[in-house]
């Protein structure tokens, strides 16, 4: 593979105008497609095979008219202190507000609180439900303005008015201040790591090209494939992070090869053939882990995995083709000024120069760990273990309006409804009774109503509604506790257990659904899938690293380190989002369960990123070891050549992920905190401390491989040994032909 990538790098360098034109054309097409495509819809999560999903499917079949409605809004009114909403003036204000909405072009209906009984027992709070003929994304600005004006008019009379419901749900758009801060930090780190504005700008430029194409494609396919804004933001987050990192790795190798005196074209080929091999492997691991999210069985998680995998694949292609093409445009300007000055004066050598100066920070740190491997291993391992302890209390759930900021009208509407009608009002349970197999529809329905009403924890049960064919009944049960409460989860299981007795007696099918029940089912499915998915990922990591490094113990060490970093990341999520530690610093106003999709999603992403750092750091170690270096010297060599680059790459990735913490979406916030923490732990504790300490203790045993595996396993040659054997060391700056190459101006 190294030889093939070497040829690709040289070809891209020579055909730089063609390569640049192709990527520019792809960028223009992707942006145009995104601009012309219709907006996607924010779909509810679904989980095929669960009881709640079966009930939803049955409702779609038996009650098509009730499931074809569009967006919904709730206008919540609260009377001034000491007054009631039933007072004459307040009632008139409420009816005027509701009446103004009932005349809207996209409004299907607007209920009167006084006729529908939507008034609290103490008479202080009331609400009107407004249903629309269009989905939230298709609501016109006029319809949204009418809703806002109705609320504003009622407020002017002294009422407190808030708006909830799906009509206000909007897609989270990237491009805020915090994301820009993350990119700015990445730019500063690139300049410091590469010592050149041109080299830093190239890494950012190529990453932006890949991200823009990926984001454009996801946006263009949002409507036909049902991709949500979360898919697009994940593609943006991952594509930007790995795109910068991959360009940094190849650029660093190009500068190294150029500093040895090789011509720019030759340096580009060798950079892609060596560092590019590691990029391909690293990208492949991220791609496989993200695509593997499809095995969990949640469509939204599958789409997120595929969107992120596509962005990573584009980042790899950009790194292998566009990056060396840009080398052809900038040439020696990619190098630090001191190196270019030495090359102009002829002070270059086609052979590596022994390092006689003071060793860098990476080499000094490696020697420190080699001298004290046991203390370093104990401190790092116990420290990560302590951070991971909160993960034992991990609770999974899905965020609703209760997790939004109190500055939003949706959150205030949620709080008003909870105050006036009980905490369970915002998360009612829907009980669906399929009476097709029952002899007496009315008797069966009445029995279900009585059974549900007798369950402890049920605040109220509504009157059943029959389908047109009188073969299905639907009733609403309101819990006494909030939707994300553990008591509500137990209540759902209790109702289902009680319903099974009714099924046995009547032959009817009784299903419990609703958004609360669906969230509970999805969270349970996530918990059940977590260990199997983690087992598959760990097994894949051990297998891939065994092939790459031709070692048994190195992959085991890498897998155990990955477990530590993921466990510590979960501990941070629990501490921040469940316990509220430092929640104020990132704008978390309401604690609760960790979003159920996050653990598996973080495992999939961090697995690939952890393998990135493992590969880039240990490749140089193995390269030195197979060429005769002692195990300790091989570790120092790896840190000397790759430690700084890996540290810079990790800081860049942490900055990009942390830049998304400031977004208002709880999903994106959780993802940003979890990924930033996981990368920090994995790069700086596991790979920089635990890995060299373990290698120091193992010595030569670290690179041992049984003979039978040595014969069976393929040799992927990620260190580029075949490249050194098959491609002669040629085309240095001293060659006359090289001096005529268009390598850019100084």
Automatic annotation (TrEMBL):
Q: Which Gene3D superfamilies match?
A: Multidrug efflux transporter AcrB transmembrane domain
The protein's topology relative to the membrane is: Multi-pass membrane protein
Could you tell me where this protein is found in the cell?
Cell membrane
Q: Mind telling me which GO cellular component terms the entry cites?
A: plasma membrane
Q: Which UniProt keywords apply?
A: Cell membrane, Membrane, Transmembrane, Transmembrane helix
Q: Which residues form a coiled coil?
A: none
Question: Which parts of the chain span the membrane according to its record?
Answer: 180-200, 207-225, 231-250, 271-298, 310-331, 374-394, 530-553, 560-582, 594-613, 645-663, 675-698
Q: Which residues form the SSD domain?
A: 203-329
Keyword Transmembrane helix among UniProt keywords: yes
Q: Which family does it belong to?
A: Belongs to the resistance-nodulation-cell division (RND) (TC 2.A.6) family. MmpL subfamily.
- PANTHER family in the record, alphabetically? MEMBRANE PROTEIN MJ1562-RELATED (PTHR33406), MEMBRANE PROTEIN SCO6666-RELATED (PTHR33406:SF11)
Q: What is this protein called?
A: MMPL family transporter
The organism of origin for this protein? Streptomyces aquilus
